[in-house]
Amino acid sequence: MEVNELRVNVWRGGADGRFQQFAVPRRASQTVLDVVTYIQRRLDPTLAYRFACRVGMCGSCAMTVNGAPRWTCRTHVDRVARDGALEIAPLANMPVVRDLVADMREFFDKWAKARGQFTPTRTRADEFAVVKPASRQRMEADAGIECIGCGVCYAACDVVKWNRDYLGPAALNRAWTLANDARDGGQKARLHAVAGDAGCHSCHTTMSCTELCPKKLSPTRSISGLKRATLAIVLRGEDGE
Amino acid sequence: MSARREARLWVVQRASAALLAFCVAVHLVTIVYAVRGGLSAAEVLSRTRGNFAWMAFYALFVFAAAAHGSIGLRTVAMEWLGWKKSTADLLMWFAASGLAGLGAQAVYAVVRP
C-alpha cells in the first residue's frame, strides 16, 4: 500500500456486521466525511451513511472514528488517523440501521421525555417578553443553546451504556436551557421529568460528553444545574404525580 | 414518587459525602498524631473511653458511611449487575442497616466507660 494512502476499516451491515477495509488516497485538509464519501462514490456505492450540511451545522454525520464519537465533516484526518489508519463505525449506544447509519429515534424520543419542548405562556396578543442578555438565566441558557443534536455526547456517555433508560446528556442539556427560559410555563413538569431514576441524578460526572462535544458545550454543567434545581422537589416535598 | 425519591437519595449522598470528607480528615490526622506515641489498644481506649465528643464524632462518621456506601451500592447493583430497582433498594437497606449496626456496636465498644 502506498504511503499516501489511508487504510480505512469501515463497519458494514447491521449489529452483527463486520469491518471492511478500503484504501483511500490521502489528500490535504481531508476530513473523515471526505473519506467516507470517497468510498461511497468511488469504491462501493452500497455504503450507507448520513450527512447533509458538511459544515458542522446539521448534526447528522456523527460516527465513531478510531473509537471515539465525532462529527465527521469537521474532523480532519490529520487529527485522528493513527499510522495512516482509520476505523469508522456507526455511533455507539444506538441501534445500527446499516453500515454507518445509527437509529437516532430513541435519542430524540428522550428529548421529548425530558420535556424538551417549549411551553408557551403568552399569545400573539401579548407584549414581547423582555429577557436581559446579561441576566443569569439568559447566560445559563446561552451556554447550552448551541446544541445541534448530533448525538456525540449520547454515544460517548457511559451511563447511557449502563442504563438504557437514562435520558442522556443532550436531552438533559436541552431541559436545562428551557429551565432557564423565563417565558416557559412547563417548569414543574420538566423538573419532575428529569429527576426520575433515569434522569439527572444518574449522571456520574465522568464528563465524556463535555470532552467530546463538537460544539464545546458542557452538558455536565447543565446536568449539575438540573440537580440543583430539582432540590426544590425535595425541600418543598412536591410530588407532582 | 420516583422523582422525589431519587432527588432525596442524591441529597443524602451529597450531604454524607461532605460529612465523610470532614470525618476522614479528622480520623487520618488523629491516626498520624496517635501513632507518634506508639500505637496500642490501651492507649486508644484511654483516649476514647467515656469521651462523649469522640462518641458523637464516630457515631456521625458511621452514620455518614452507612448512608453513603449503601446508596452507592444501590446504583452499582442497578447499573453494573442489572438489578431491578426494588431489589437494589433491598440491598441498600440491608447494607445501610448492617453498616450502621456494626458501626454503632464498634463505637459503643470503644467509648463505653
Record the SSE blueprint.
The complex is a heterodimer of chains A (about 240) and B (about 110).
Chain A: E1 5-12, E2 18-25, H1 32-43, E3 62-65, E4 68-71, H2 77-80, E5 85-89, E6 96-98, E7 101-102, H3 105-113, H4 136-144, H5 152-156, H6 158-162, H7 169-179, H8 187-194, H9 208-212, H10 219-229, H11 231-235
Helix pairs in contact in A: 3-7, 4-7, 7-8, 7-10
Chain B: H1 2-35, H2 41-48, H3 52-79, H4 85-111
Helix pairs in contact in B: 1-3, 3-4
Mind explaining what this structure looks like?
The complex is a heterodimer of chains A (241) and B (113). Chain A is of the alpha+beta class and 241 residues long. Chain A is 35% helix and 14% strand. Chain A has helices spanning 32-43, 77-80, 105-113, 136-144, 152-156, 158-162, 169-179, 187-194, 208-212, 219-229, 231-235; strands at 5-12, 18-25, 62-65, 68-71, 85-89, 96-98, 101-102. Chain B has helices at residues 2-35, 41-48, 52-79, 85-111. Chain B has a single domain (2-111), classed as 3 helical TM bundles of succinate and fumarate reductases. Chain B contains four helices and no strands. Chain B is mainly α.
CATH topology of the largest domain in chain A: Fumarate Reductase Iron-sulfur Protein, Chain B, domain 2
SS-derived structural category of chain B? mainly alpha
The two chains with the largest interface, and their residue counts, are: A-B, 22 and 16 residues
The CATH top-level class label of the largest domain in chain A: Mainly Alpha
- Classify the helix fraction of chain A into a percent range: 25-40%
CATH architecture of chain B: Up-down Bundle
